[in-house]
Amino acid sequence: MSNPQIQNIEELKESGKLDEALRVANTLLRKDPSNKDILIQIADIEYRKWEIARAEKPIDFLLHGLSDDAMSLYIKWVLQMEKTNRQDAKSYFKRALQILDEENPEILRCYGLCEYWLWHREQWIEYLKKAFESNKKDAEIILNIIEIAIMEESWWRAKKYIAYYYAHVSSLNFFDRERSHYDDKIALFDEFIKSNIDEQDENSTK
Q1: pTM of the shown model
Q2: Average pLDDT in the 169-184 region?
Q3: Residue 96: how many CA atoms within 13 Å on its side-chain side?
Q4: Where are the alpha helices (DSSP H) in 49-178?
């Protein structure tokens, strides 16, 4: 499948023309029913339409024939997490990690989040730290570490990564959202931590 065809679908998706994107993808799929790229596009379109069951069908088809495809396993994880099937989601991620020749920071990040929501506290730290070490320029990884550190009231860890964000913000990559989203969130977290630490210090002197 040529890149222009995939690009056309991507442009339709980004402009919000999901039904048209789906029609184009299905037309291409009829010509090449096993095309991995088109099947993944269809899954993504259905997911954006919040049709989780429909999104799973092309991924299940891929996993039936390509059980060792890390991207399909990753998407299956996303869909299982949306259905709150966290234990099943973890199994798909574990298989994806075993397949990858190199550690993928995005998969490590998501696996760490999966471990956290399964209440495996030590594991989430391990995987998110691995994700950070694999890609120290991904703002989403840094934000996730800070978010969970605050939820765990691990102020020192949150402060460490907030400081890192501010020190390296000009060289970070903002794949998921605009930089302004991260700037705003980090500023709120920084203010929240300072207020909590100040309150703890005040209480300790009483």
Answers
A1: 0.54
A2: 89
A3: 25
A4: 52-65, 70-82, 86-99, 105-117, 121-134, 139-151, 155-168
